[in-house]
Design a protein that fits this description.
With about 300 residues, the chain is an all-alpha fold. Helix content is about 70%, strand content about 0%. It has a domain at about 20-85: Serine Threonine Protein Phosphatase 5, Tetratricopeptide repeat (Alpha Horseshoe).
Length: about 300
């Protein structure tokens, strides 16, 4: 596989000092992974590791593709090695966040937090408030969709509070964190079955968005309305709103699939679960959606 992937290419030059020697080969594997050819990507990574067992990039990407294939325990052996190999703070943070996401694929908030919290603390120590907030929010979402609402609430608050501590905070950035905070509280309230509280936060999030300071947050408004509607039992509204959201987001697609199930349309649900599996992202949205889609499709 490795030979086929490099057929016709010029002989590789020696890597520069400090460069991962497997970098070029790993990029070939990543391309295969993006195309959904996970077995082919894994074969490339394994050959890279046979030659360069201490390649940080190869260890990380092997873990990523194994997670996408549902082989979580094996994935973590490679991610553990990547954490050990990390030679820079950036690499360490990447490996830790990737390990946290591996646990997200099994909806394991507790073990995800063991790794993501280390990244959070790194950013706090470096006074990187925005980055600390981003990591906290990412973990909060993992915990929310893992069903640990109290832990999710704790991390969403940390994300919000850190975000507001950014030096020279601009009005648009403040609005971004206020919008995210209301968005999170609405989803938490919906998951707790508190429709009135959820709707109050939906309206607050909309009001912040309507200020026009963060137009790139537009797709997150119908997602929020649809999410709250789904979890408070208004499935027709959920469907209408979620279909206005990002149709390349596997999480949105999985919610649409579940909504069709609630509305008694298994054929449409299947169509959307199949679309979920076209995503090869290693992030909170796919960590929730991909295992669910696989489970649902295996029963149909």
């Amino acid at each position: 596989m490795l030979c086929a992937a490099t057929a016709g290419a010029q002989p590789p030059s020696s890597p520069a000092a400090g460069q991962d020697p497997a970098a070029d080969v790993v990029r070939q594997g990543q391309q295969k992974a993006r195309e959904g050819q996970h077995e082919e990507a894994l074969a490339i990574y394994r050959q890279a590791l046979a030659k360069w067992p201490d390649s940080f990039a190869a260890q990380v990407q092997t873990g990523v593709v194994l997670d996408l294939m549902g082989q979580y325990s094996e994935a973590r052996t490679h991610l553990k090695k990547a954490i050990e190999l990390a030679s820079t703070p950036q690499n360490k943070a990447q490996a830790l966040r990737t390990m946290a996401m591996s646990y997200a694929f099994e909806r394991n908030c507790g073990d995800a937090a063991k790794y993501a919290s280390q990244v959070y603390e790194m950013h706090v120590a470096a006074k990187e408030s925005f980055n600390a907030g981003e990591v906290a929010n990412e973990l909060a979402r993992v915990c929310l969709e893992s069903g640990d609402l109290d832990e999710a609430s704790k991390w969403y608050r940390r994300g919000y509070e850190n975000g507001l501590q950014e030096p020279d905070l601009k009005p648009d950035r403040r609005d971004l964190w206020e919008f995210r905070w209301e968005h999170a509280q609405a989803r938490l309230a919906a998951r707790r079955g508190n429709k009135v509280e959820a709707q109050k936060h939906v309206e607050a999030a909309k009001a912040i968005f309507d200020k026009g300071t963060n137009p790139n947050q537009a797709p997150f408004v119908p997602y929020l309305v649809g999410y709250v509607a789904f979890y408070t039992g208004d499935h027709q509204t959920a469907l209408a709103e979620l279909q206005k959201g990002n149709q390349n987001d596997p999480f949105i697609l999985s919610l649409i699939a579940q909504t069709y199930e609630k509305l008694g349309d298994p054929a449409k649900a299947r169509e959307y679960y199949e679309r979920v599996l076209q995503s090869n992202a290693h992030n909170p949205t796919n960590a929730y959606a991909r295992p669910l889609a696989k489970e649902k499709l295996s029963k149909k």
